[in-house]
């Protein structure tokens, strides 16, 4: 039974990645930034933590810092997108221009 444990873990990992990607497909930039920043920060923190002696502590700190930074950057992107949407005039199509004449 032990010989199937790595296979079960890899199937779970692939399923988890696809689940996260499907959720991110319809998320705002702030939510995407949070998830991507958390994952990236955890990986980078884990690597740095392994060198300094505590992989888990490094991953936790990295995830917290990366998630916060990603959420802040994503929120700023959402604000810029709203401003652009409000400030850029919507072009009138030729069909609607003819109808208004």
Give an overview in words:
The protein starts with a helix and ends with a helix. The protein has a domain at 40-78. The protein has 4 helices and no strands. With 101 residues, the chain is an all-alpha fold.
Helix and strand layout, with pairings?
Elements: H1 5-24, H2 29-52, H3 55-87, H4 94-100
Helix pairs in contact: 2-3
Features:
101 residues, mainly alpha, 4 helices
Largest sheet: none
Instruction: Write the element-wise H/E pattern from the N-terminal end onward.
Output: HHHH
Low-confidence stretches: none
What is Rg?
22 Å
- Range of helix content: over 70%
Termini separation comes to 77 Å
What's this entry about, in short?
The protein has four helices and no strands. It has 101 residues and is mostly helical.
